[in-house]
Specification:
The chain has 8 helices and 11 strands. It has helices at 13-24, 44-53, 62-68, 78-87, 93-100, 131-140, 220-229, 234-238, and strands at 2-6, 30-33, 105-108, 111-114, 145-148, 155-159, 164-168, 172-175, 181-185, 199-205, 210-216. Strands 3-4-5-9-6-7 form a 6-stranded mixed β-sheet, with helices on one face. A 5-stranded mixed β-sheet has the order 2-1-10-11-8. The radius of gyration is 17 Å and the shape is globular.
Length: 241
């Protein structure tokens, strides 16, 4: 079983198209999205419709949560809040119904998929959890591996029952060990924040106990122009570079 894991698309259809093209080269069995399809980027409706049309299992992200429960907007910075308020009228009834029905986590193939932090937090960031909290989370995690998004920075946390080890993830194949548990931060398709402006996703090979970290170039200028033309905060365009 080979599962492509995508996250934090943020209305960036240019990046998502390139990621879909890359995924097709590797014969994956399924694709899972960890949420934040919307926010920041200029094409949230198109992105959500693509996810729907491809029947991709999807987790609710904090940006989706804010769209269905505006009380969460207080947690956003002013530019992010403006982005959500701007794009809401663009969304179709079908897309909003899809967003409203998203789950907070999925379990498949001894893996858990959640936007923020296991077992099912939408809003908790990995960097907010100290080593004691990580050990507790690993102890409660029924699955061997948990994929998360939210921070837009790829990272891997391993636990052998005694020691927590945190490391950044680089492009290429990473071997996993059966006697360890892992939390893997999936990075971002549409708005990476790790100093590398390519779209990020990974392919989990369940049988081979490995993840292939994929860095995919896309046409950034097209997206930045669309952001400005749509009247969204220019900071969201500048950050893509």
């Amino acid at each position: 079983m080979r599962i492509a894991v995508i996250s934090d698309i943020h209305g960036n259809m240019e990046a998502l198209n390139e990621v879909f093209d890359d995924i097709e080269k590797y014969g994956v069995d399924t694709v899972i999205c960890l949420g934040d399809m919307v926010g920041y980027g200029p094409e949230p409706e198109v992105v959500v419709q693509q996810i729907i049309s491809r029947d991709i299992p999807t987790i609710m992200g904090n940006h989706e949560l804010a769209m269905i429960d505006p009380s969460y907007l207080k947690w956003f910075n002013p530019a992010a809040r403006q982005s959500i308020l701007t794009i809401m009228p663009w969304m179709s009834e079908e897309s909003m119904t899809f967003i409203s029905n998203l789950e907070t986590s999925i379990s498949m193939c001894s893996g858990r998929f959640v936007h923020g932090f296991p077992p099912d937090s939408i809003i908790t960031y990995l960097f907010q959890i100290d080593n004691k909290g990580l050990m507790d989370a690993f102890g409660e995690l029924e699955e061997k591996i948990c994929f998360i998004g939210h921070t837009h920075k790829m990272a891997i946390v391993s636990y052998d029952g005694k020691t927590v080890i945190k490391s950044p993830l680089k492009e290429g194949l990473v071997k996993l060990y059966e006697d360890k548990k892992y939390i893997i931060n999936n990075g971002s398709v549409g708005q990476p924040r790790d100093g590398n402006n390519t779209a990020k996703y990974l392919i989990w090979d369940v049988a081979e106990h490995s993840v292939d970290i994929r860095f995919v170039p896309y046409h950034i200028a097209r997206v930045t122009n669309k952001i400005v033309e749509a009247g969204l905060p220019e900071a969201h365009a500048d950050r893509l570079w």
